[in-house]
Every structure is written in structure tokens, then in C-alpha cells.
Amino acid sequence: MCRAASTQAQSSVTLSCCLRLSACIPVVRLVSRKIARNTLVIMSYCIVGAGMAGLAAARRVLEVGGEVTIFERMDQIGGTWIYTDEVGVDRYGLPVHTSMYRGLRTNLPKEVMGYPDFPIPAQRASYIVSEDILSFLRLYADRYDIKRHIKFEHHVVQIHPTDGCRWMVEVENLTTHQRQQFVFDFLFICNGHYHTPNVPDVPGRHSFRGEQLHSHDYRCTEHYKDKAVLVIGAGPSGMDIALELAKTASRVTISHHMDLLTFPFPSNLSQQTDVSVLTETGAKFTNGKEESFNVILYCTGFRYSFPFLGDDCGVRVQHNHVQPLYKHCININHPTMAFIGLPYYVCAAQMMDLQVRFCLQYFTGRQRLPSTTTMLDDMVQETEDRFLRGFKRHQAHMMGPEQGRYYDDLARTAGIETIAPVMTKLHNESSQRFVDDLIHFRDDVFKIVDDEYFEYVKE
């Protein structure tokens, strides 16, 4: 019922920390360090989260011979792809992590959603159900023997740097309520960014007497049968949910500030301008019109949130910009910490794998990081360049049509293989199809021809 609302390494690495200002720049050598006869030191990696990003990180760390521990607060892998009827808080009193709703089909073709060397298994449809993505992630975890490194139902409480340039991670075992502290050499933060709702402070919000919720707590259409629903926000989730609601609701209105959407809507689905104020019974819009509603559903995105990171970790989130990060990944103040999966409107699994490989070039010593000043200058320059190209402050990690620039920059900087250009081309093409034909775009079927080209099998 739905509710509203490690393998032992053949070689090891040693680590020394230097340049102690606010940063700790690792100098890593690909040699063995003996602390006793015939004893090798293996670098330890903590990974927060066992979703798509965490699995990518684990696979690549194991590949280079690192020791991996993954802390996952849920009882299975998959992160945001896990469906649950729970909303609000879970059985442990923690905010429900997943935003998955019943019946979701991907809004990107599966051909761009697999890992570079581990595609989603073949099936006729390109746009597949969420359960198929979850099954794919389980296949990936099994293929690389990742599950034995995961501590399920373990909630990361706090993380702090140690004096020795390592990381203290305090974790609560949710089933026993016991807390334990661990120390690691490196950190991959992979907790995703579709878990903390961004709810705008709309004037009159506290006056409305009906039901209000964020899409994070939306689960199924049945709850909205015969109701009038206002959907605020016309991004991918807002449009998708609005179309689903139109199947059972008496009336659905989408409020947004984009140009008028011109594709054919169901007869009970309409669009309006931005909300100027909410009333007791509905909303007034900036064009002067007013409508009554039973439910207001905010499809207004999510905020990056890392409540377990102490202030001494040297990372802040300002205007939804996680900073200071080198190439949207590496914590410049403490560069043995990296964030995987922050950029959005991307080929997610492909990019996550690339980001992990990028970071490991430095964590394993194959490449040496630039100075703190150089990394900060790079971040500032990239941010200013994005402003000049029309991005807003809150879009600091948005990629979209220009995602290929980011992939190639990562690859070129670290001396690694980039993502096949066909992935960016197909991602951009399918995203445009979403805009052009919201009703029918999921009927499209694509085939990857080679690293450069794809073709339509069906339109």
C-alpha cells in the first residue's frame, strides 16, 4: 500500500602529508612500505553510500588494491533507486533517503546509464523501469564482489580529519544502536543528492489549508484521486509526476517560469505562471489568475547535504555549490576526501566511474596534485567561466549539453580515458526529445553503433 506525502594487493602505497596550511596534499608513492618483515601497508578507503556512485568507487578501489569499507544506512544496495512506501522518517527515525515513486520509468535511455565497461543488459526498450536499474546495480556488485565490503544498516554520524592526515569516521549500527569509530586513509563521499528536499518559501505557504508535500514524499497516484493538484516546478520530475497525476486527479496545474510548453497535454492538465501567493484554498499566479487546489506538490529539486561532515572537514555548501572542490571532486582543503556524483544532467554511472578513476590517479600516486593555490584558482576560473556562459549560482554543478567538456577535462588532466563521445551525444539528443515530445519520448529505442555514433531503432 502506498502512502502520500579486498583482495590483497600485489603492490602497496605509502602516504606522506605535506604543505600543512588548511590543506593536506598527499604525496603518494607506488612502492611497498614495510613496518615489519614481510608486512605491507594497504591504504584504507571509506565509502559513504552503496548506491550507483559508491559501487563505482568500491569497484575501482578494489581494482588498485585498496582496502574498502562501505557504510550504507539501508539494508540493501541501490540508494535512490530503492522503492519504499515509507515517507518522512524510517523505522530508525532517520529521514527517508529515497525519492523513488511507484511506476517510475527512466527519463534517459538505458544505453547511457550503464558503467563504461558494464552496460545495462539488453532488452528491447530503451526507457526501463526502476526495478531494472536496481537489478543492474546488483549484477554489478556481484560481478566485482563488492557486497562483502558493505556494512549495511550503518549510519555515518560524523567525520573529522585526524592530526595524521587521515579520517575518523563515527558510525552507528542501526540494529544494535552501538557506535564505533574507524580511521581511514581516504574518503569517498557517495551519499547522492536526491534526498534533502529544496522547498521554496512561497508567500502564504503557511496559510494554505490543504495538503503540501515535496516530490521526495510522492509515492503513487491513488492518493490524489479526484483531487485538484498544483505542481510547482516543471523539471523532469515535475513533468513526469504531473502526467501521472492526471490519470487519477480531477485537475492538475503545473506552475513554472519557463516559456509556454507547447506539446499536447491531457485535457485535465494545464499550466500556469509562477505562484505569487498561496491562499487558504489555493494559489494566485503572477499573471493575476487564481485557482483552488486540494494539494500542492513541490517539484523544486534537492539540496546537497552532508550533515555528517564536521566543520573541520573544510567543505561548505553555499547557494547549492559544494566548495572548495577541485574538478567538482576533490576537497581542496583536505585532498584525501573526494565527492562522487555531484554534477547533474549527466550520464551518471559513466561520469561516476570517470570521477573515481580521476581521483585514484592522485590517491595512488600515479599523478601528483597541483598546489592548493593552483586548485583554488582552477575552481574560481571554472566557476566564472560558467557564469559567463549563462549558468546561475545555484547551478554550479549542472552540466547538461556541455557535459562532454567536463569529461574531457577530467581525462586530460589526470591522463586517463574519457567517456565515449556517443554517450554525451545520445544523452543530449534524448534530453531534447524529452522537451519536444514529453508524451511519447519513452517510445524511442536507441542502439549504440560505436564510440561516436548511435541510431534510432524506433521513433
TrEMBL record:
Q: Name one Pfam family in it.
A: FMO-like
Please tell me whether the keyword Heme is annotated for this protein: no
| Residues spanning the membrane | 39-58
Q: Does the keyword Transmembrane helix apply?
A: yes
EC primary class: oxidoreductase
Recorded family membership = Belongs to the FMO family.
PANTHER family for the chain: DIMETHYLANILINE MONOOXYGENASE
List cofactor names only.
Answer: FAD
Q: Which domain of life is it from?
A: Eukaryota
- GO MF: flavin adenine dinucleotide binding; N,N-dimethylaniline monooxygenase activity; NADP binding
What organism is listed for this UniProt entry?
Answer: Anopheles minimus
List the Gene3D superfamilies hit by this protein, alphabetically: FAD/NAD(P)-binding domain
- State the EC number(s): 1.-.-.-
Sorted keywords for this record are: FAD, Flavoprotein, Membrane, Monooxygenase, NADP, Oxidoreductase, Transmembrane, Transmembrane helix
Q: What is this protein called?
A: Flavin-containing monooxygenase
